[in-house]
Specification:
The chain has 319 residues and is an alpha/beta fold. The protein has ten helices and 15 strands. The chain folds into two domains: 115 residues, Rossmann fold; 185 residues, 3-Layer(aba) Sandwich (Rossmann fold). It holds the Pfam family AlaDh_PNT_N.
Length: 319
Amino acid sequence: MSLKFGIVKELNQELDRRVAFSPTQLEELKLLYPRLEFRVESSDNRIFTDEEYESKGITVSSDITDCDVLIGINPIAPSNLILGKEYLFVTDLIKKVNPLFTLDALTSLVGTYNAFRAFGLKFELFKLPAIATFSDQATLTTYLKRPVLPPLKITFIGSEANLVGAEVIMKALKIKKVSSDDFLSKNFAQAVYTFINSPEQINLESFTTVSDICIINSSINGKSVLVSQELLNTKDGKLRVVADLNPMSTNSIACTLRQSTPEDPFYGYLPNENKEVDLHHPGAIVVVAVPDTTIEYPKETSEFIGSQLAQYYIPTVFK
């Protein structure tokens, strides 16, 4: 049996440069499964060029309608669906909380990076470029050795999977991890962070009061993390940046008044009035609330998606 897979270009998300498989991954799949054929729909936008696919022996065409299965990142409009074809859209799998597509680490990596980018912008200390500027993680971490941070305190609230991505940024910026007790009771000569994965078991106000930056997954293990207006408006609080890693799951974080976008990821929140203001307002907390940060990191996200599909989906074709 011969089966043709077509990799579609993203029609309804012009800014989404992700793709289901990298050129190298398709080359490897061809060797593993000789009965499978892969074709890539020509695109000027995706992170990997047509020429990169062709260099690996993958056919690139403007017409892939003869393929049996069509794979994309985002669902396409019903009017563009081809009768009789099978479709697989990665974002549908992610929205179903499919355990094969937990992009928690990449989401928190980008969200954590944007938190420091926001802090540098707010206080005009340094100017970090958009994360999409970097071709890969190695380039990103090398660049992050440049900024010199003041002795900030950062609270990271999320899952162990979230922490994996955040630690890439923390280590690159030479931010030391400390215990919660030390975080609350001691002063440090360097930037430090503490990790909380059970916020319901602590007094969250004690952490937000002494933190300069909070990076928060608003839903951990199905439980919402509550950050109220009153908590954000604590007298003498230092908090100046809140990065909401999951702004589409709940409205439990008061400063997340709306979702932001990769092109305009920051806005100001005035906690005493519970309203949006300019991020340079002296009383403003800068909010980062991009709902899908992996769009900003297309190369490594695509490679992650491709590895999951290659490991779990492609083998099922023969069952």
